[in-house]
Structures are given as C-alpha cells and as structure tokens.
Amino acid sequence: MAGVALAGSALPAITILKPNKVYAGTNADTLKVGLIGCGGRGSGAANQALKADPNVVLHAMGDIFPDKLQSSLENLTKVHGSKVKVDDGHKFIGFDAYKKVLESGVDVVLLATPPHFRPEHLTAAINAGKHVFCEKPVAVDAPGVRKVLDAAKLAKQKNLSLMSGFCWRYHEPKRASFGRILDGAVGDISAIYNTYDTGTLWSFPRVQGWTDAQYVLRNWTYYTWLAGDHIVEQAVHSIDMMSWAMGGKLPISATGTGGRQVRTEELFGNIFDHFAVTYEYENGVKGFHHSRQQANCENSYLVETIGTKGRAMVNCARNVHEIYGQNPWKYEGKQNDMYQTEHDELFASIRKGTPLNDGEFMAQSTLLAIMGRMAAYTGKRVTWEEAMNSTEKLGPQSSADFSFDMKPPIVEVAKPGITAFS
User: Gene3D superfamilies, per this entry (predicted)?
Assistant: First the structure.
C-alpha cells in the first residue's frame, strides 16, 4: 500500500487509560516509539502513531539511507513539533540500525523496511520485549513466514501487542461487510473473486556513485528476493480479504500463471507484471485472484464473494460495500481512516494491558500470496503443505550479510513449466 501524506485525517482523540503496569522496560507514562525504515509508509506509520496517543514521542529512527531518515525526520517534525524527540544520538544508519533502535530505550517499534528484512527485524523486536507495528507483507519466502509465526507465539507469551499492516482489517466498512459474510448473509460460499490491477509503480533513476546494491535497494519493489513480487508486496491485500471472507480457512492448493508482457526492461528487475491464480479449498470453494501492474489498462481492486443466498461486493477503488440477493444490505456508516485506526487501537491496547496479536493471520495471508507466486512461477499445482514447508530462501539471510559493496543476487525471471519448485 502506498504511503500516505503526513497531514492525514484528524480523528477524535481516543480515551487514554492511566497505565497500571510497566511498559516494555520503562516506568514512565510516555511511550517512546522507534521507526525502522523511514520511507513513505514508515513515515506515514510514524505520523499515525504520534496522533494515536497524547503521550507518545518519536524517540529513535533507523534506515540504511541517511537522506531517507533526514527527510522523514524533517517532515514529521513539521507536523508534530515537540513530539519528535530524535536527537543526533538516536539517528541510526546502516544494516544494523534496527538493533540500535531496539537498544535505544523505545517501547514500540514500527517495522517498515522492505519485506525481505521483516522476519529478522520482527524476531529481534519481540525478543527485545517491544510492542510492534509490522507492515505487510511479513516475509518473502516460507522460511521467513515460519520465523514470523514463531515470533507471534512469543509475543503472546510476553503479552506484547503485534499489529499488522493489513490495513483493511481496520476499515469500518469492511469490518461490517466481512462480518455479515461470516454471519451467513450470502449463504454458503462457492467462489471468491479478487483483484489488484494497477498501473506501474515508482522507481529511482541511477545516480552517479551508487553501487549496484544501492541501486537495487532503492528500487527494491522490482526484485523478488526483496519484495516477494507484486502479488506478495501489493496484491496480498486482496488475498488477505479473500482469506477474511473464508474465516481464515486455508486452501488445499493453488494453480496459476503469470509473466512479463510489457514491463520487460532491466529497470523492472525480475518480477512479473501480471498474475492469475486459482485457490482451491477442501469444500470445493474456489478463490480466483488476478493482479496486474501494467500502464494504460483497466484498473480493479475488489473482492466479490458469491454464495448460495447472494453475493457481496467489496470494491476498494470505488468504496462500494454492498450485499445483493436474499439479504440485501448496503454500508452507510462512518468512513474511517484505516491507517489511523490501526494505531489508535494499537496504542489503546498497550495502555489497557490487553495486547492485540495479528501474527497468525498476517503470516498466513503472506504465505497465501507466496503460494500463489510459487504456483505462477512454476506452472505447477502447489499445496498448502508444500508452500508452508518450502525450503526456498530468497536472498542473503542476515542483515550482517549486506553491504553497499555486495553483489546483489542475480535472479532470472521465472518461466512457468521450467522454473522448479523448492
């Protein structure tokens, strides 16, 4: 999901309960926030965190690029003034910056680096006893998903809040829509059609002096080992809503296809520009997913759930939330800022001492998208068990293996029917 403007929409202040416990290593009322990954989405998350609670400050920031950190800091300071308390000793640069943020005395961390780093950063944050906002997707491969599931279990044991960046889960119209679907408004589900068809994304032209690693890391969305491909990095939102409609029930298999038709230049790394995947569930339900990043084409961003009593339309692009058939209904309630609601509920849960934990569904939805990518890349039927137990590891496995002088992995574009499953 693209980053949002710092100005954002102002929501009414939430009621803050006086703390009755020590928060993650501090006995003060003030909650200190650390931002790890200072791009657009990370800056947006920091903005929402600072608006979510009157006694929250931004205490530390970390990124691999100094210009990203400085730009984020300046913009956040313009909006939030004295709530931004990041002195020179709490600006951390480098691939180990996340460790320094975690050691800086923060209570809550916002994880918004490229997805490749998420399992490592999340594991370290939970081990350090921090509450976490964790952007989606949470991994790019199955070993990473398994690490995230372990971290989520540990977060529960430690009574830590773990919130995902699957923002539609915090959108009131969608909560109402999927709530009705799960209550049987469309009857027994037979099929779910979901799309995420958009134009092309941003890119940064190469600047003289950049190494190969710097160029790739600044354009990370175009490399499967960093982003997971766009079915995982972007379209996972639609796949997550499909899973939501299914009540979290897992499919038994996926088959699919995809490729590069128009976005074939070196600029676009090794990712596809379109996917089409069919998920099959044990009871015969089919989930049909289509995603595309191609310019000058029809866009679509929706989830349509078809059942024995009707169908439900959730259209993200057009803000339509309606059920047709035996139980007609149309959402006419409030329209909330889902990004802000995420953080309002996160910080309220910390204050109340009633931790939220999105860990299981955020990991499963990420793996659903990875499973779809596996099916499309290989052209083979991939079962849920095969996807979950896959040993394929994308890219270097530790931040310690990264440097700007490294040679980024050279990965060929997948070829269905030729690329092997692992």
Answer: Dihydrodipicolinate Reductase, domain 2, NAD(P)-binding Rossmann-like Domain
User: pTM for this one?
Assistant: 0.93
Q: Which residues, in sequence order, are bridge partners of residue 320?
A: 315
- Segment 194-209, tens digit of pLDDT: 999 999 999 999 999 9
Yes or no: say if 301 and 196 are a contact pair by the CB < 8 Å rule.
yes
CA angle 170, 172, 176 (to 5 degrees): 115
Side-chain-facing half-sphere of 248: CA atoms under 13 Å: 9
What SS3 state is found at 128?
coil
**What backbone phi and psi angles, to 5 degrees, belong to 421?**
-80, 140
Contact assessment for residue 295 and residue 200, using Cβ atoms and an 8 Å cutoff: yes
Instruction: List phi, psi (to 5°) of 381.
Output: -75, 130
Residue 409 has φ and ψ, to the nearest 5°, of: -55, 135
Which among 196, 170, 190 has a CA at the least distance from the CA of 275?
Answer: 196
Strands 131-134, 302-307: pairing kind: unpaired
| Assigned token pair, 75 | 């913009």
